[in-house]
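queue> holo job accepted (arginine)
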Amino acid sequence: MSSTTETKRANLSWGGRFAEGPSAIMQAINASIGFDRKLWRQDIRGSLAHAAMLRHVGILSAEEEGAIREGLAAIAARIEAGDFPWEEALEDIHMNVEARLTEAIGEAGKRLHTARSRNDQVATDLRLWVRDAIDGLAAQVEDCMRALVARAEEHAATVMPGFTHLQPAQPTTLGHHLLAYVEMLSRDRGRLLDCRARLNESPLGAAAMCGTGFPIDRHMTARALGFERPMRNSLDAVASRDFAMEFLAACAICATHLSRFAEEVVLWTNPYFGFVRLSDAFTTGSSIMPQKRNPDAAELVRAKTGRINGALLGLLTVMKGLALTYAKDMQEDKEGIFDAAESLALCLAATAGMVRDMRPDAARMRAAAGAGFSTATDLADWLVRELRLPFRDAHHVTGRLVARAEAKGCDLAGLSLEEMRAEDPRIHEGVFSVLTVEASVASRTSYGGTAPENVRRMAAEWRERLA
Ligand code: ARG
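queue> job finished
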């Protein structure tokens, strides 16, 4: 990249009316090539489609279009090889490519920008980039779901404590818990794909903002770029970034789900919980405390949500209050989008990795599941079923039994029948059968409930759907 201090010549692309070049500061704040070069594939793809269309409608000759095609292929090869001479003075990806093209093929290169503006060009490039990013992320979400489903099937009957308020609530199974994340991720995938369907329209040919008097064929370029149709309104085409907001919103929600799971991994791997263990592959040590095994990957998945949410908020803030149509403010859309997509990709990979890596400790989880009077709801339900107590009364009787057990220092099953009968004389031996964690989870057969048979069926359904 050339230095910010040297440039004094007027800009080659738009400098006709300018006697001098921009100040170094102007160039530094204006240039986007440092980050928007990421759009090079999309930019070249868009130019190829545009040139083919210009030839089709007779604006370019076959020779000119052929030269453009070859010139762009050569540029793509140079970029790929890492020896493209990016120039900050040329501002952005569009002008860097066009300037080199013209340098290489002459006159025909200068004709490429007929009936096109950087305004519709950048909107096209960015839609193509986000569309590719969605395809990659959706595939990664599916991979993460597959990892969770496999572990869920394996642990359909592995009892663990379920929490509300992070206090012991009811016994559940690890399989059921993991499948909850599969459901969340499937909606995340749906949100990404909804966004893809909505963004898949072509801005190309809107030109600066009002369209063009040249006899262009916007349907042809739309088709060539895999868009469903050209966008209907040229002002909307160059001014709107809601597709990017929607993408970032979908990313932020997905990251939030991954962050909640990451927090659970942090808790579960804490020795006080000891529910799962991560191998050396997904943990780090401490430089001073030799005993440490830290769940850094989970912590970073938890933390990266911040920058993804930040990208969403950043773009919403950039766009609010912008009068139609394009404003240079919109150049600030890109870094957040790139960073959010990359961060989410990393989070998804790390999560899938941790899910496959973790070794659950079934004995620890079972013991914890039985603590904290976690089958109190089962006892209350038994009083309703067997003694026909109204649930509210059953709740009170159970509450008093919990207090008795707490005073005695035992769990509910540790109370004698006499102690139980002191609260309601009709209680009989049968009550003890509902007080184990296994009985508790097995009983919850309502649709979507935690019973291992349900979990096994749901996991198998997901496995087939994701195959
Ligand atoms: N680099 C610019 C961007 O990212 C491209 C569009 C420039 N358009 C303009 N009218 N200056 O938004």
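queue> The mean pLDDT is 95.
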